[in-house]
Amino acid sequence: MNRSASERVTATVGRAPGTTPLGQAAKFTVLFVLAALFLLPMYVLLVTAFKPFDEATAARAWLLPQSWSLEGWAAAWDALAPGLWNSVQMVVPSAILSAVLGSMNGYVLARWRFPGADTVFTLFLFGMFIPYQAVMIPLQQTMVEAGLMGGLFPLILAHTVYGIPICTLIFRNYYATIPHTLIEAARVDGAGLLRTYRSVILPVSAPVFAVTLIWQFTSAWNDFLFAVFLTGPNTWPVTVQLNNVAGSMVVPYNQQMAAAVLASLPTLVIYLVLGRYFMRGLMAGALKG
Amino acid sequence: MSPHTAQAGAGTEVRPRTPGRLHRIRVRSRTWLPGLLMVTPSILLIGVFVYGMIGWNTSLALSDQHAPVQDGSFVGLTNFAELWQESRWPAAVGNAVVFTVVFVGGALVLGWFLGLMLDKGLRGEAAFRTLFLAPMAVSFIATGVVWRWLMNPAPAERATGLNALFVQFDLEFLVNDWWTAPNMGMAAMALPAIWQLSGYIMALFLAGFRGVSEELREAARVDGCSEWGVYRHVVMPQLRPVTLSAVIILGHMSLKVFDLIIAIAGQQIVADVPAVYMWTTVFEVRDPAKGATIASYLLIAVAVFVIPYLVWTIRKERSEGR
Lengths: 289, 322
What we know:
With 289 residues, chain A is mostly helical. Chain A has helices spanning 2-15, 21-49, 71-111, 117-129, 133-145, 153-175, 180-188, 193-201, 206-222, 225-230, 238-247, 253-273, 275-285. Chains A and B meet through helix 1, helix 2, helix 3, helix 4 and helix 5 of A and helix 1, helix 2, helix 4, helix 5 and helix 6 of B.
């Protein structure tokens, strides 16, 4: 640990010629102030969530709890538990499905191209940017007419389908870095599309699956728009239930804040544990491979 | 698959005895057809759920189906024109514009600044980066819950949230109505969005800064450029593509902003934006044609700058030979 720290310092010095100690100090000061501002909402969340009901008042708003309490957490858990479970049931299948489809598309669009592949890819990409409002009324109407409303299926379908473009993009950019020779070698050996996919492409796909699964998990977990249009009281995912808890004027702040933390915990934990993959998904979202 | 077909697939060694055009197509299609088949499920899904439904939505917007059960007939652009005659729609558009300008500008400047601060491989860089990017992992709804508390508009005597903090530190002049202020309230509404997205923009710029080769920077230094001059004249010009991506991402999020507004303001008219108006129209007014019209406007607003961007990106990529 000591060694790596000293290595990092050397690297720092090596990479930054011409920066004075004073400049470094100024930089740190600015960064610490900004960090404090960024932490402010997180402080409020945690401090308020741990207050007992009678302490969650305006007068003590910014102070630490006098007595730490789990009252807010318990109430928040009761209110959110069904939503959390709905979210898990909805997010897992749709993340897996769109990642699998994205992988197949990415492979073909990068390495087994057909005439018009570029056009197809562009049309897919546009699907990434559309405001989902533009499909929402027909989508909802279709689900109603098909008698599918009331279950989680419409939401799973929506997240799968509208996740295809970004997943395709991430996989395509990744597969484009696999050397042509590797695939040509497989072809010469007589391997067709599927065998090349299985024996050459899939074995190197683990990291990019991690990236897309995390990306899809996060965006479906945090979605609110599809959820309000496509689910009802029994199938509300956690974002809708959180909004209901917070939107009602009678729910005390300690419970609201605890609910916000609970609803964010899964994605935050993933971010903290698998941050590297999360970052790569974000970068791919900017069309950069 | 036999070795023979594989050779035909490679398309280099097999010379067909009768080199007819049809035959050539058949041979070549043997290589690409499986690929097309593999993408077909997605093409169908995207075709139906993106393009088909956009088409359906458009035809709904061009009809007079103003109640869910009634049949509509074609009325041209009537709905599109009528929206501008009411007072709520132009106000919602105005709000979205103010929000977009403050949010895109704010997140861009702050994100760029954070990237600049962290570029030089500072001690503890990873910790700062993790912190600044963390809000990205959280939903707009959760962000809204905290920020509604922070931006509580109660006056100084009963102040909570940031206003209470200002009072405590004798900064009463900073106490304000936040998002409930008419006209410029949407600028306050942009604060949580800036908090949430500037870490992302930081990461984009950081990648951009580091994409500029050290040799190039060194060359400028040898030519007598100051450290700031290197940024100004060498690094910044190379960041144009990153900046463009950032503007597109922020801009398209901003125009359709919905969750954040609902979480902070509910459906209060002072913070109305097109996406919220559409939701009200569909769920409360129950007017499909009008809802579809608002949705069409959102689509147009996003499409006019996303389509040129996509075309530009794909072309650039192709000219770089990827």
